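Changelog excerpt

This revision adds worked examples to the README so contributors can see how folded entries look when concatenated. The first example is reproduced verbatim below.
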Amino acid sequence: MQVIYNGISHLGEALEGVTKVFVVCDSSYPFLNIKHDIENMGTPHVLFSDFTPNPLYDQVCKGVDLFQITKCDSILAVGGGSAIDVAKCIKLAVLTKDGNAALIPPLVSTRVECDGSKIPFIAIPTTAGTGSESTHNAVMYYEGAKQTVTNEGVLPDYAILEPSVLKTLPLYQKKCTMMDALCQGIESWWSVNSTEESYEYSRKTIELIMENWRKYIFENDDEAAVQIMLAANYGGKAINITQTTAAHAMSYKLTSLYKLPHGHAVAVCLPEIWEYMLNNLDKCIDKRGSDYLLDIFMDIAHAMGCENPHQAIVCLRHMMVDMELWNPVSDRKEDDLLMLSASVNLVRLKNNPIELKDKTIRYLYDTII
């Protein structure tokens, strides 16, 4: 069972019993207000930050080598989703008998044996978006292809939520990461894998964001930051149960093709996909049926403070306009549509409650770009 701590002051409790910490941190680390707390945590540590925002397999392997050479016995990830994902990959590679091979095809698509209790793992997110601190999934790239690494053994044992780190985030990054959290809450709720537990995490994610997003984005309000960070954590917990759906599946190539940050890319997809699903309930593939799905759409809308799903879709679009998060524009649209349509992760489409065929995916991309 994961332990959630509120505040960096609990770092010592999370580190109890460890002797040497492997700190995985991203490029924001030197500028963090909690850097002093980490450097003075009273436990010997080794820093590893030699990776890019979309981490590569070779970079993860460097981290694995350094962890083993320095004989660390625990991991502390400090940063956004990429830093936490790198830490997860390192932990899995160190613990599994398959080593680094567990991170790449063909083993990456299986659940290799991993006893996570052997290496205590603490995550301190410095953005409020992915909720990666509370998931057993990680993303990295091998030979240009995105790999999703999934294993129960890499779920952090402790997550420390310290909202003050959000205070100095660039405004655009705050917008993108917050929208990623909101989209995760929405997608998890309508996923074919949703459960009573995931519903509640989704509801909390959406309600907290809708109640606080303006103060968080436009006023840099401290209390709003607390609530948005909590919302992102709930979103991670929801997705940890259900996995993501079509909006995420369609977002990844938008990120690489148009250099859109992940949260921005997901957020331009979701309203178009939701509108299509609402107008095509007869294509429902959720075993619970189309009437059930329409009720879920209504529940999501109500959590957003809207009367119905149509109003909720309009609300999402207005949010994007207010934050100046525009859709990408292509000057070679036909070529891009072919590339985008061929890129979609079919596994994530299986989690979507409405069937999306090739022609539909192309149509949706046409509306997005």
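The second example, added in the same revision:
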Amino acid sequence: MNEKFFALPKEKQNTIINAGYRVFSQNSYKKSPMSEIAGEAGISKSLLFHYFHNKKELYLFLWDNCAKLTIKYLTEYKCYEQTDLFEMMYRGMKAKIRIMNQYPNMGSFVIKAFYERDADISSAIQDSFKSYKALKADKILESIDTTQFAEGIDVKMMYREMYLASEGYLWEMQRNGAVDVEKMEKDFTEMLNFWKKLYLRKEVKNERN
């Protein structure tokens, strides 16, 4: 990637990034024209190729940017520092809402990219996903205080269930258009309270009531 892209003002970088997320999220990789991305970003097609040598380079940059942004904001919201899984997930939700406000089509792009079957990029996407997933899962599971959960709970299975439900909820809200922060926080708090009733030890529930 041409370093001149990073020399652009941050606002202009984000305009190009968001244009890429929108176009790629609505089309397959092959059917996403660079000219449309350039037009939405307010630059010429030749200038876009000046910043990114080809479509594959732009696509993989956008994918990698998703992971880096997610880790950045989860770190800022101190998600990885929490020992309480439910507090960690609440902070994670707030971090992801912030991302959705700045990059409205990023979540749609991630889903589209994950299931992309174009041979030119699919293997790179899957390899990248596995490496980031392993890194994130390790951080989360290392820090969780498992003594708070009821006896016999499979923590990995429980976390996977809650994670998928949370991601599905965020995905549904994103598809509906504008992000309603107040509603999302209310709904997610209710989800967390439901999971606490299911998974916390009785003594811990009593302490928190």
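Reviewer comment on example two: Residues 67 and 125 are 11 Å apart (CA to CA). The radius of gyration is 19 Å.
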